[in-house]
Amino acid sequence: MRIQLREHYCITKLLQVARLSIRLTNKIPLSLDNRNNPFLISIKSNMSHTVGDLIRLFTPQQLDVDTSSTLSEKKWTSDYHHLYRETVTGRLPIRQGLAAFLSPEPLPSYADSLGLATPAHMLNSQQLEIMTEGDVTHDFDQNIIPLVELAFSGESAVTIPARGAAPVPGGAKLSPRSLVASKNSSSSKKVVDYQMTLSHEIKLLESPAMIGELKRPRIIKRKEWAFEMTPSETTIRLMQEARGYAHLYECPQVFLFDSKTLVLVQFRAESTAEIANPDCSVDVCIIPREDLRLEGQCSMAEGLYALALRGFTQKQE
Predict the structure, then answer these.
(1) Which superkingdom heads the taxonomic lineage of this protein's source (predicted)?
(2) 93-137, pLDDT tens digit by residue?
């Protein structure tokens, strides 16, 4: 018994020393030469990565234990048209497919390469149990969006914001926001879950480059979004939400995420009013968490990055 207690005491002390070493290491500037410190060496090696290196990695499949797939009703979106097969162009969830409809051209911008060159740490991804919309939000915040937000943190070298314009310091700068109302409505019932926004000192001049809704697991039916099956009432309501939020927030770039599937939606509108038009052309890209049958599949983070970049460059046109 005494030997067991002593072993327990020694293990406890070792853990305490390890925790202290980690705390101290986090306070040591990376410029210091501490080659004998294994924690510092680990930090240095991680910083050799960039957003571009890590954004292509697939995050672990989550443990989905919810089978209800219910959708809360947003009555204000019922006045909007859902998406129609005749106006939708389906895009493959591969890197070449993303470039085909989300390329920043014809507006040249170095924001792409600069954002992807931002130094980054490997994510501490973990497998989660997904039962509620809150769990989906946790998954999104921890495993999907961090690298996208880092790419638009404005920490890169320079950006050329428009054709012929002079370079400005910093990369593309977008501010991540959650549950922020549109400038066109103060109703708490019309607030989108997430957005990446071009900030401005005058709040009314802020403009979202990308907005998105986080949903309960299994709510997105891939075959219905691809029109391989007739859209159900739930899918129709999701499509109405996508159009409604795009119109309300004046943002053609929209996504929906339920942990298992990410849907990118882009309205090919020349004006805000055109978004609400049922004849408006729409791009739709359905991205699974990871499908080994899809050669060259993009990750969810890559899809969101491309969507946000398109929104950023479109705001400069």
Answers:
(1) Eukaryota
(2) 998 888 888 876 554 455 667 788 888 888 777 788 888 899 999
